[in-house]
Amino acid sequence: MTNVMTYPAVRRLNFGFDAQASTDKYFADGNIVFSHLVAILSAIFPPGEDIFVRSVRRYVDVIDDPDLRKRVTGFIGQEKTHGLQHRELNEQLTAMGYPTAWFEYLLGITERMEKFLDKQYPDPNRLPRIRRFFLGFTVAAEHFTAVWAENILKRPAVQAMMYDDEIRNLLNWHALEELEHKSVAFDVYRAVGVPESTRIRWMRFAQNCGIPILVLFSWLSIATTDVEGRRQPFRILKETVQMLRNPMWKGFYSDMRPFKKRDFHPDQIGTAELVARWQQELFGTQGQLADHLR
Ligand SMILES: [Fe+2]
Ligand SMILES: [Fe+2]
Question: Where, by residue number, does the polypeptide cross the bilayer (predicted)?
Fold first, then answer.
């Protein structure tokens, strides 16, 4: 099954994020752990997506297929816009007391090193191991995000958990575009001819360590910044269990499995109908976000 949109569309939007806005601090289901986790995700998206963009853009000149080049342009545009919007939300989250700037700073460390390498050795075939390492990471992370996006969009229970309308709108828009461009980095990876073992190793790491790392980061975030959370260790433990049982993670491990097959392709997972439905739901004439489009 192929995606409805061949070229990922770049949509410029206006969300109503405001560093002065007063919104419920525990905007995710009233759950402290879940709210910190969503804040961390929002914090790491912009530098993470910058890594994805650099990893793919590096190979643009060696891609012969004009169709794939156009899709890469759409992919870069979408990821760049996600970063911009999440940075706006992150300012609001910082004002609400979340340590978003710290997480963004920590993940941004690779940027200097990558920019130095790209300047010093512009030929992507130089130092291929490092470059392919980043592309493999991107491809595995894109699958991780696509599985997540599908869960967010197809489960009404997850939709009902987001108390803040604009945060829910941002997550839905981001999830939709993740599905629209889910196979672009993968097709670049194949076009470049990186061995399948690199992406499979990355997926093994993401599958085994992704959720535990996010839980640890959430606890760290609470321990360092959240007085109310620190005072209630039993609530934190209980909410961690609740958060792990969240429908957002349903089938997560089994959905990672096919990626580890050597003949896997993201379009083997049929999300075209879900994408078409949400394109209408969000950006159709009566769409929930039609008035957000610039
Ligand atoms: Fe994104
Ligand atoms: Fe993406």
Answer: none
Q: How far is the CA of 82 from the centre of ligand 1 (A)?
A: 5
How many angstroms from the chain centroid is the CA of residue 186? 15
DSSP 37-80: HHHHHHHHHHHHHHHHHHHHHTTGGG---HHHHHHHHHHHHHHH
Separation in Å, CA 96 to CA 17, 19, 43, 46, 151: 12, 8, 13, 19, 27
29 CA to centre of ligand 2 in angstroms: 25
pLDDT at 2: 43
Tokens (6 digits) for 269: 């997972």
The pLDDT mean for the chain works out to 91
- The Å distance, Cα 180 to ligand 2 centre, comes to 9
Q: Are 145 and 16 in contact (CB under 8 A)?
A: no
What mean pLDDT do residues 172-194 have? 96
How far is Cα of residue 124 from the mean position of the Cα atoms in its chain? 25
pTM of the model: 0.91
Other CB atoms within a 10 A radius of the CB of residue 230 amount to: 13
Report CA torsion sign: 47, 209, 264, 148: negative
**Rounded to the nearest whole angstrom, what is the distance from the C-alpha of residue 84 to the centroid of ligand 1?**
10
CB 131 within 8 A of CB 58: yes
Amino acid sitting at position 99: P
Asked if residues 89 and 162 have their Cβ atoms less than 8 Å apart, the reply is: no
